[in-house]
Amino acid sequence: MLIGKYLTLEECCKSATALRLGIDNKPNQQQTIALNTLAVNIYDKCCEKFLVKIPVVSGFRSKDLNDAISGSSQSSQHMRGEAFDLDLDGTNNGVTNAQLFNYIKQHLSFDQLIWEFGTEISPAWIHVSYDVSGKNRKNVFYSAKDNGKVHYKPFYK
Question: For the segment 15-38, what is each residue's pLDDT rounded down to a tens digit?
Fold first, then answer.
């Protein structure tokens, strides 16, 4: 089943951890609608801008899967179908994660955009979310580890 123009529902829900642990990682109807909204408003526009299919390294997460991977919290937007982690890694048409991040930041509506780890030049991957209600805050952060704990700090670049 297609979610947006370029992404299947299966790609949005794929998880090696869920497979390994036998966790059902299928979204309900409301979560599927949210995934479609995210794909149409973020994913499809990015694919069309850069003329590449962008790998989704983490999409929908059921509560059990989110718990198994020690996900952010019980309010994770991944659990609502409102968030993707994307990773181009410079392998698709030479497009980097930094270029993707900056395009989203400057041109699209989003709720949260996070430069996940990596370096000052490019993130290791990008977290992007879209609030299905349309109340997108355009919050931009970068993640960093301090004393082994992940912190999110405002992004000023």
Answer: 999 999 999 999 999 999 999 999
For residue 96, count CB atoms less than 10 angstroms from its CB and return exposed for 0-12, middle for 13-18, buried for 19 or more.
middle
| Residue 22 buriedness (CB in 10 A; 0-12 / 13-18 / 19+) | exposed
Residue 148 burial (CB count, 10 A): 5
Compute φ and ψ for 44, nearest 5 degrees. -60, -40
Whether domain 2-154 has CATH 3.30.1380.10 = yes
- Which of 22, 23, 25, 21 shows the shortest CA–CA distance to 10? 25
Q: What pTM was estimated for this model as a whole? A: 0.92
- Sorted by where each begins, the domain ranges of the chain are 2-154
Could you tell me how many helices (H) and strands (E) the chain has, helices first? Answer: 7, 8
**Is-contact 12 25, C-beta < 8 A?**
no
